[in-house]
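Subject: complex prediction, re-run

Hi both,

The earlier run crashed halfway through, so I resubmitted it with identical inputs.
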Amino acid sequence: MRIVLLGAPGSGKGTQAQRLVARFGVPQISTGDLLRSAVARGTELGRRAKAAMDSGQLVADEIVIGIIRERLGQGDAQDGYVLDGFPRNQAQARALATMLAAIGQPLDAVVLFEVDYAEIARRISGRRSCPNCGTIYNVHDASTLGITHCTSCDAGPLLTQRPDDNEQTVARRLAVYDEQTRPLIEHYRAQGLLRTIDAQGDVEEVTDRLLAVLPPA
Ligand code: AMP
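This time it finished cleanly. Structure:
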């Protein structure tokens, strides 16, 4: 299964990608996670990416395309993957198509997550994640209301909030999505790859809708 999850920041791509990983055993490849890890480790790449991430802009194409090229070449990605947060503009989509054509492994589907802006604001303001295992929670959801510590890993550390999940940066990230990423909807629709799901509501229900549109594993 080689799929792309497409949608605005806060539309639930990361949460649903984690569920696909658990179910199908393919890796989640999130450029946001890979970049945050590079920033946290203080690598040269992280240093180059940090300013764009802090201000809600896209990191340079050459950096993210390089990250994806390297990641797709790793052993665990040979039987499929869930791309989360890549591609984010036309140049990245073209680079991905070229990479996949070269190895004869085209995408199976692109799933668009549809969520209205009020819900995006609610999800982003409540989003917390575990610094140890990466599990994503929402402190506004009934099942995890007010949660402070991770319940998914043994360490159970205090959950953290992403530095770019603040009001000003979120506004910029949404504008960038509208300008640069939204055109990919038509790009993939024209290729017959696009599947659209209503990504509002309960996490379980969204997972069911997602599974219903995926090609057979
Ligand atoms: P995300 O975790 O997907 O919301 O990404 C967080 C931030 O990482 C974004 O606001 C961008 O600054 C950067 N980023 C993630 N993926 C990409 C990408 N495909 N192209 C450029 N920048 C990216």
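Residues 167-181 form the longest helix (15 residues).

- K.
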